[in-house]
Amino acid sequence: WEWRSNIGTRQSRKRTPSDISDHNSPPNLGLSETSASRFLIAMSFLYSDQWEWRIFYRPTADAPPAEITSAVSMHDERVDVYRPHSASVGLKRRGRTAIELKVTVEHDGNGAERLIKFALRSESEVDAVLQRLQVQTAPDVKYNGVVEIHKQQCKSYQLGAMVEVVELSVVVTAPDGTKLEPRRWRSLSVEGSQAMCVALAPRLTERALMESIGQPCMRGGYSKFVCQQVRQASQAVVTPDAAQMVEAVAETGGATALKAEQAAEVEMVEAAEAAGAAAACEVYIVRHGERVDEVDGEERRRWITSLEQCADGNDGFDPPLTIHGVAQAADAARSLRALLPQPKPFDVVFCSPLVRCVQTAEHFAYTFGIPITLVPGLGECCAALHHRSRSAKRRWPLLQPLEQLRVLCPRASFTVPDIASLPERFEDGPLTCAGSLAQGRRRVLLISHRESIRSLAKRQQSKDRKSDDRNTPYACIGLFHCYQPTTVEERWRYYGLVRRGAVMGGMGFDPAATKC
User: Fold this and answer.
1) CA dist 402 to 266, 386, 399, 408, 414, Å?
2) Rounded to an integer, what is the distance from CA 440 to the centroid of its chain?
3) pTM
4) Contact indicator for 23, 102 with CB cutoff of 8 Å
5) Compositional bias (Polar residues) spans (predicted)?
6) Domain that holds residue 485
């Protein structure tokens, strides 16, 4: 449901989630009818499912400026004034009248958070909004103060997400009215889907640790950063000598000399990232490109004719890619290469033995410079070869032999592992084929079918996700974390698609790609 309004000369749009309003009625914020009308006129409610991951740190003097090399980027300079509220609720004044209220409604274990933003006319409206959203966080009134942040922003739009580097000059006004000297900070962030936040966070963390002067970095949004700045200002002895001493200690990297209670409030990103890397394996699952039997046109007619000329009993269960499907696979490989610029993020491409998946895997193998390993279990998840299908036993021997696949995909090399060591089923009770491939690895790449993404997404033991978990277009790339693989405690966490692929392709349409 949608509600639109004009506030001054600024166009604003309000998307109303189901937990805030009912059908066509305006949101009930606990105000009288007259007050609610004035409230709706004065407020623009901006609701979004986008996630944000952000890290703050004190950069060294020789750290490069805030700049990202990208074909699509923009620069911006402005001054925002923040008032501390709590770690999950932020208040920011932009311009003379507008107040932006930012509320964190969901966290994940990797530092990403999902936000709801409001534009208000008065701080008196904050409590009504938080009450309607059932946000229980009380403001940190004992750390009252103001934080003025001068920002030089460089935004770059990459792979459907916004990567941002911000140079910050932070001026804190303590509760007693004393204005402290400006301090230089830097912020790195990514805004987009949860999967993109999780995928890009290690790269941004690595850069922050390289450029930091030695103080612990702080992972979180502006609301948490502002509360931390005011809290430190309220606890410090604000005399010129003391301020200079603290600044000198920070610049020389002696963060351990700061007060214990101040250091306790700052997250140690290094330890968190190390623990996360040891506990989970990143699993990227790619669905194959557009298949020829699901389009209309000359390609499909030629393929049907070739089947009619075969006498081996092939019923068309293993169709190849269309020309458009090949282009989708190549584009998906380039997108993942841009997302993971490390020299060799994967050591092998694990692939379903069906032709459409092998053709897709060829582009990933060529782009990353790694071989392909065929895994029967990655093909067993599709309907044609599933163990519950009556025709599966007859179809397995009809798959293309390795020699034919080498001819079909000349740019790829293939490994021939011990067949007995490869799982034959995608799911076997609590264990999975993907989990066995993730064992002992930090990151794996699988080329499979839509059922693989959907099956593992169902295993997520956190709260139910939205129905678009099953939206798996051609050449989409899903990101998972696998914990304790090959054990009865094997767990999966699904972060969504780092590449959404393409539903429409050539002259055809994949009806099952958007069916939930």
Assistant:
1) 54, 21, 9, 10, 8
2) 24
3) 0.72
4) no
5) 1-10
6) 277-509
